[in-house]
Write a structure and sequence with these properties.
By secondary structure, this protein is α+β, with helices and mostly antiparallel strands. The chain has 5 helices and 5 strands, in the order αααββββαβα.
């Protein structure tokens, strides 16, 4: 959860936006666009610094899924944070989905034991077509 530190109007606006979009993958550009739409002046460096602070506090997870895409941030309450999460990116529309899978968690556990490797789940992405793109074929 977010510590009770000094909270500026700009930080509150950023946090409110993240909380309103709980569970969604949000980029810095989306945060900036929302703040501009709300007539809240916040510089990009301020947004980056605050997001880094929220990541350090554990209130937000940061996902960098490939070298060409912008980082995504996801706000969730501590009670909602999954132990193991997986990602799927649609190769057609670019949509990013966050999901749970008992079978993939079991595979992760088996690999830790048998091959002595640890999978970085935050960097693991499955690619294919989302349901909407698959049906539009």
């Amino acid at each position: 959860m977010v510590r009770a530190s000094y909270q500026t109007k700009q930080k509150k606006a950023i946090l409110d936006f993240l909380q309103q979009n709980k569970g969604a993958h949000i980029t810095i550009q989306q945060i900036s666009a929302h703040l501009q739409q709300e007539n809240t002046a916040v510089s990009m460096p301020t947004i980056y610094r605050y997001m880094d602070a929220l990541v350090r506090e554990g209130a937000v997870k940061k996902y960098v899924l490939d070298g060409n895409a912008a980082a995504c941030f996801q706000y969730e309450d501590e009670t909602d944070m999954p132990d193991s999460s997986f990602h799927f990116r649609c190769g057609q529309c670019g949509k990013l989905l966050h999901f749970q899978s008992r079978e993939l968690q079991q595979l992760d556990s088996q690999l830790k034991k048998s091959a002595s490797v640890k999978i970085d789940l935050e960097q693991t992405v499955f690619y294919g077509l989302c349901g909407a793109c698959e049906h539009s074929k």
